Structure formats: C-alpha cells, structure tokens
C-alpha cells in the first residue's frame, strides 16, 4: 500500500510531528559550559606546572673593591700607563705589579720619551687607596722594587708598522638587561663595591678598612632577570665593631641605596656579610695581589666569553685591551640601535697584523635585522684595524687608571661606551 501526498502522517491526523528543537537547546547550553570547564582546567594545569614550561635559573657575578690586592696592582700598572701618555702619546707600556706583605714589585717594559717616576706613582696609588696604617703590614711606605726595561725590538717592529702588539682573541658583549646594556649581576656587584668604598672614604661607615668583595645571585625567568636570590658582602672592619653593626650599616648605607636604583628589594636574611663571621685584616699582607687576575670582574661577570689576556698596564697597541674595547663598542651599539637584544662580537689578531683575522657576531636568536645589515652597521661605526680602533676610540691618552676598578664596561665616561645613532 502506498500513500499519496495528501495522506495524513502515519498514526493518524492526531499524531505529533517529531522535532529536534529540544536537542538543539541542550547542545547550545552544553557547549558554553564545556568550554568554560575546559579552559579552567587548562589554566589550573598550566599554573600547577608552570615551572615545567618556564625556563628558570640563577646566575652569580662577583666584584671587588678598589683596595683589593689584585686591584691595587691593576691601578698601579694603569697609573704608570697614564703617566707615560701624559708625556708621550706614542708610549709603549706593558707593566705588571705584584704586592704582598710590606713589598711592591713592578716589572715589565716601557718605551717613552720620558721615564715615568715608577716608585712615586706606586706610593701615590697605595696611599689614595687607604693603606696608611702600619697595622695593615702594607702601606705606601712599603719597600718597592722596580724591574722595568724598554720594549723588545722584535715586538716593536710589528707595532711600528701600525700592527698588533700581540696575538689573541677578544670578545665584546651587550644585552638589554640594564640601561648600561650590561648584565644585571655584574652591574650590581660593581655598584655595590663602588658604594662600599664611597662610604669608607667619606667616613659614613668609618669602621670599614680597605679591601672588600661583593657577589650577587640573580634569578632569571625565560632569560629575564626578575629578582635577587642572594647577596654577599665581605669587608674588613675595626675589631671593636660587632658584625651585627657592620651588617646593619652596609644594609642601610650600601645595599638599599644601590638596589633602589634598579627597583629591586631583598630579604635581609638573604644577605651574607663576612661569611666566616670575622674579617679584621685584609689587603696585600693577607692575600698577595697581581695585575690582571680579575678579568671576569673587569668584563661581564662570567655572563659572556672573554679573551685570553688582561687589560691593565697595557697600552692600546696591545689588542688584548683595545680589541676588547672595540668589541664591546660594537656589541653595545648593535643592542642600543635595536638590531638585537643580546650580542657578542668576536675578534682575533696576530702579532704585527693590521686587520682582524676573525670578526664575527652572535645574537643568540635575538636579532631584529638580517646579519648583513648588522655587519654593515658595524663597518660604518668602527674600523677594526689596530690603527682604526686606536684612532676611532681615541685611545692614546691618559684615561686608564679609572678603568682599573669597578669594571671596564658599563660606565659612560669611557669612549667605548659611546652610543652612535644611525
């Protein structure tokens, strides 16, 4: 039997027509609820497991005060360089200093129109650093041995021809962690060391003695600094003053003012002062010092690679120094001009060579422009031949004593910290 188009629906005229509308309503109600529950569960999952998806680490850098034995040596060596440049801007200088109990030894090579007064220079530096009390067993009146002669003629041949005074590789680094485009750990460590010396010299904390060290541990999340984990200060002080007074004084007059500049805070329990509990006598009588032994302090606090040579006591024909300054200058300008967030510049020379045998950049995946544009930019702002660096950064002048404490980088007073806008 078949039904015509006019036949009533099966079940008779009174039968109800089947509808899907209730099902549609249920689905419309269910989907928003499902989405809400799903996203809430996902949020809870990511919150509880955030550490698994976020890169978290700490990084530590240290610095030392100007009266640290190694820094005493760096400053004596650079004071000789400055004195030589005052009399002859083409002076060749490579001076090493060693200090220990009651004694100073100066050795190396100096070729200049006028012989610097080595002993007088050393005594002036030591006195200025606060080593004036015989209790230190090392003062500006200590015995001084001078064993300095002229530069080797074989080295002079290469330098006379405007070539490098030595071989080696140099690295420059910059990042956007601070206004100075330096890593935060070393900047804080240097600033704290500088402030310790300031409160001692100005007698804000008159019980402090020369020498001292700082150390800062910074917490990073996804390669960005987010806070201070630990802060270490080590400073010799008067025996009559209790450690608790020293710690309170350093907290109020050193730590808080410096951290405030960077909008940072630290719980007092995370500050360590004089780890053994006692430090009354420091300086060269307690720990022999030598020029060039603080190259991590002098550069990037271990955050970036460094070359094989120290800086202090060397004139700019020594590319250990001038090449490192050039590399920093290039790296800083690359970051300052928003070409990358982080940058390392690599240079290398051999003795007598005019131009670097290696000149490369590494931007750690943070480049904002193609490598060719960055390299063209570098070529525009500095000629990296030895002569080009010395001329471009105006390095034949007495500016080096100020570099010999609190780091060679991150302070605008130096020509390699100048920013060029193109």
Q: How does the SSE layout of this entry go?
A:
Elements: H1 21-48, H2 50-53, E1 56-64, H3 69-87, E2 92-100, E3 103-111, H4 118-128, E4 143-149, H5 153-160, E5 168-175, H6 184-201, E6 213-221, E7 224-234, H7 243-261, E8 271-273, E9 289-290, H8 295-298, H9 319-336, E10 342-349, E11 358-362, H10 371-381, H11 386-392
Radius of gyration from CA coordinates: 32 Å
What oligomeric arrangement do these chains adopt?
A: single chain
Named at the architecture level, the CATH assignment of the domain at 56-64 and 184-273 is: 2-Layer Sandwich
The strand count comes to 11
Structural class: alpha+beta
Structure write-up:
With 422 residues, the chain is α+β, with helices and mostly antiparallel strands. It has a domain at 56-64 and 184-273: GMP Synthetase, Chain A, domain 3, CATH 3.30.300. The protein has 11 helices and 11 strands. It has helices at residues 21-48, 50-53, 69-87, 118-128, 153-160, 184-201, 243-261, 295-298, 319-336, 371-381, 386-392, and strands at residues 56-64, 92-100, 103-111, 143-149, 168-175, 213-221, 224-234, 271-273, 289-290, 342-349, 358-362. It has a 4-stranded mixed sheet. Strands 4-3-2-9 form a 4-stranded mixed sheet, with helices on one face. The chain has a 3-stranded antiparallel sheet with strand order 5-10-11. Helix 3 (69-87) packs across helix 4 and helix 6 crosses helix 7 (243-261). The radius of gyration is 32 Å and the shape is flat. Residues 1-12 have low confidence and may be disordered.
């Amino acid at each position: 039997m078949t039904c015509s188009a006019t036949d009533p629906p099966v079940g008779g005229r009174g039968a109800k027509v089947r509808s899907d509308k209730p099902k549609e309503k249920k689905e419309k109600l269910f989907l928003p609820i499902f989405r809400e529950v799903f996203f809430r569960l996902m949020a809870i999952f990511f919150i509880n497991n955030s550490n698994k998806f976020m890169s978290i680490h700490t990084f530590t850098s240290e610095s030392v005060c100007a009266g640290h034995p190694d820094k005493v040596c760096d400053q004596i060596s650079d004071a000789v360089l400055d004195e030589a440049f005052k009399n002859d801007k083409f002076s060749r200088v490579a001076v090493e200093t060693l200090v220990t109990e009651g004694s100073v030894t100066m050795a190396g090579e100096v070729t200049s129109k006028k012989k610097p007064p080595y002993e007088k220079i050393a005594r002036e530096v030591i006195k200025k650093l606060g080593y004036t009390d015989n209790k230190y067993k090392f003062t500006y009146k200590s015995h001084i041995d001078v064993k300095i002669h002229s530069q080797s003629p074989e080295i002079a041949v290469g330098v006379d021809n405007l070539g490098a005074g030595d071989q080696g590789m140099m690295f420059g680094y910059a990042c956007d962690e601070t206004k100075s485009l330096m890593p935060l750990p070393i900047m804080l460590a240097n600033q704290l060391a500088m402030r310790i010396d300031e409160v001692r010299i100005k007698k804000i904390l008159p019980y402090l003695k020369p020498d001292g060290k700082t150390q800062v541990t910074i917490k990073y999340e996804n390669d960005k600094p987010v806070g201070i984990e630990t802060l270490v200060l080590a400073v010799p002080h008067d025996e009559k003053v209790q450690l608790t007074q020293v710690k309170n004084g350093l907290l109020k007059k050193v730590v808080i003012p410096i951290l405030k500049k960077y909008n940072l805070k630290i719980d007092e329990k995370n500050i360590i002062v004089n780890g053994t509990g006692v430090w009354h006598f420091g300086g060269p009588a307690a720990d022999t010092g030598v020029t060039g032994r603080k190259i991590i302090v002098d550069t990037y606090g271990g955050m970036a690679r460094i070359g094989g040579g120290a800086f202090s006591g060397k004139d700019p024909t020594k590319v250990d120094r001038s090449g490192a300054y050039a590399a920093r200058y290039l790296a800083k300008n690359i970051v300052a001009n928003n070409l990358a967030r982080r940058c390392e510049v690599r240079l290398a020379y051999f003795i007598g060579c005019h131009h670097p045998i290696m000149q490369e950049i590494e931007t750690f995946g943070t480049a904002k422009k193609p490598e060719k544009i960055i390299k063209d930019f570098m070529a525009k702002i500095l000629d990296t031949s030895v002569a080009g660096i010395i001329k471009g950064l105006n390095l034949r002048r007495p500016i080096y004593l100020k570099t010999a404490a609190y780091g060679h980088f991150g302070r605008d007073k130096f020509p390699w910290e100048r920013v060029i806008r193109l």
